[in-house]
Amino acid sequence: MEQQTMLKEILKALDLYASDFRSQIAALDKKIEAIDKKVEAMNGEFRRKFVEIDKRIQEMDDRLEGRIDRLENEMNERFNRLETKIDNLRIELIETQETVDFHSAKIAQHDRKIRKLSQQQ
């Protein structure tokens, strides 16, 4: 009988310990669930923030590309105007050179006539 009593006492102690252990595990499980919910909420917030930041970056990229396109168009327009001015200057220089060549030929003609006249006298 004594052994049965001792065995019952041991079983009772083990049962109490197991009950206490189960309640601790249940408390830990609740804490883990609460942490999981917080982590899930934070992940949702991070995803939302990431999408928002990605959207802002895309908007900035679009604006920057627009500015670059406008700048390229403006530069092309300015280069075209500059090219037109240079072409006009080139034409003027060619015309001026032709005029100088014409006048040089006339001066040379007159010089020959003057020499010829001065030799005849």
TrEMBL record:
Keyword Coiled coil in the entry? The reply is yes
Q: Which Gene3D superfamilies match?
A: 3.90.20.10
Give the superkingdom in one word.
Answer: Bacteria
Q: Which residues form a coiled coil?
A: 25-120
Q: Which UniProt keywords apply?
A: Coiled coil
Stated name of the protein: t-SNARE coiled-coil homology domain-containing protein
Instruction: Tell me the organism.
Output: Parageobacillus galactosidasius
